[in-house]
Amino acid sequence: MSKLRTVEHVRSFEEINSLFDVVDKKGQGTFATVFTVKDKSAPESEPYALKMIIPITDLRRIENELRILRQLNGKHGVVKMLSAMRIRDHTFILMPYIDHSYYLTFKEKDIRRYLLHLLRALEYVHRYGIIHRDVKPSNFLLDRHFGLAHSQFEGDVDKSWDPSSACQLSKRESRVSLESRHSYTLRSSSLRELDNLRHFPAKSLVKSASVKPQLCSALSTPRRSSTTGGSPFSPPSIIPSGSGNLCKSGSTEEQCVCGNRLTLCRSCRGYPKHPPVRRGGTVGYRAPEVVLRSSHQTTAVDLWAVGVTFLTFLTGRYPFIKVDDDLEVLHAFTHLLSYERMQQGARIVGKRILVDPRPPPLEEGETPTTFLKKRLVSIRKNERKLIAPPPIMSEAA
C-alpha cells in the first residue's frame, strides 16, 4: 500500500492535524482516498469525510471536480463540498460523512430507492450539461438513516455543452467551461483558477449548522503572495522538440512530439489526426460509444452505467463483468443484449463490431428482454459469492 494513502500520511499535514482527528481510512479510488475525520474542537460532533486527491492527478481534473461540486451545491443527492484546501500538492475536500449500507446486501425496496435517487441526481447533474462519466455503486452511496442518496464525483468528470439543451441556462453558467480544446494556451489561467478555488470564503460555510465558524476560518487559509499574480504556481512553459514545429492555438496541423518519445510520432508517420475522445470511467461501466472511441458522446453514457449497476443488483455480481479489457466487455455484452442490437448501436456512431465467436441469434418468438432475462438468471445461479440480505431491524431485535 502506498504511503501517500495512509492515515499516518494525512496526520503529517500540520494544517489538517491541528483541526481534525483522522479516525480511519474509508476507501480509495484511482485518484483519491477518503478518510473519516472528527473536529478536534467538538469531539462529540458528527464525523466528516475528508477526500485527499493524490499529487499526480492533473490539475485540470481537480479544477473540474471543485467547480462542479461548488456549482451543484449539494442539491438533489449530490454530495456537498463544505470546504477545500491545497497543501504541498495535495488537495483536500471536506464533505459530510455518509453512513451507508453495502450495496450487494440491498433488498428489493432498497434497490428501487437507490435507483430512484440515482436517476434524480443524474437528471439534476445533466441539466447543467455535466457528464459524470464514472457512475458505479462505489461512487453513489445510500444513506441508511435518512434515505438520501449522494453522488460522489471522482476525478474524471467532464462537461460537454450542447447548445440546444444549454440555451435555458444563465449566461454566467454557460461561461463555465470545464473542457478546453486549446489546453496549452489556457494552462496558466487554469492554474490561477485552481489557486482561487482553494480559498473559499468562510462566511459561505458558516451557514451550515454542522460546521463551526472557527473550523471554516481555519480551512480558508490566507492567499500566498507570489510574483505570478497571487498564484503559487509558476506559469507553464512549452518546449518544442528539435524535429518539429510547435502548432499555434487553433491550428489544424498535428504537433510533432518525437523529441518526447522513443518512437516516431503519428505526425511523422503520416497517420491521420484523430479528434480527441474522452475515455474516462471504469472498465465494465463504459458505454459502447466510449469503448468504440466515438466523438459523439452524450449524457447517455451515464445511463448505460446505471443499467450496468442495475445488472449488478439483479445478479449479485460485482463487478458485473470481471475482465480488464474494454473489448472483452463489449464482447460480453453482445452475448447479453444480442449481437444484432450491439451491431445496430455501433452503426449509429459510425462503427462496426466484429465478434468471434458470434453469440447465437435470437430464437423464434424470443424478444431481447427475454433473451437478457434468461442469461441474468443463469449468471445469478452460477454466482457463488451471493450475499444474503441482512435481517431488518425489527427482525434483529
Q: Can you walk me through this structure?
A:
The chain is of the alpha+beta class. The chain has 3 domains: 1-97 and 188-233, Phosphorylase Kinase, domain 1 (2-Layer Sandwich); 98-181 and 278-392, Transferase(Phosphotransferase) domain 1 (Transferase(Phosphotransferase), domain 1), CATH 1.10.510.10; 238-275, no CATH class. 36% of the residues lie in helices and 11% in strands. It has 16 helices and 9 strands. The protein has helices spanning 7-11, 14-17, 59-72, 108-127, 163-166, 171-174, 183-197, 202-206, 213-219, 266-269, 288-291, 300-315, 326-337, 339-348, 368-382, 393-396, and strands at 20-28, 32-39, 48-53, 83-87, 90-96, 130-131, 140-142, 149-151, 158-159. The strands form 3 sheets. A 5-stranded antiparallel beta sheet has the order 1-2-3-5-4. α4 packs antiparallel against α12 (300-315) and α13 (326-337) packs across α14. It is globular and about 70 Å long. The two termini are 39 Å apart. 26% of the residues are buried. Mean pLDDT is 72; it is low at 159-252 and 387-397.
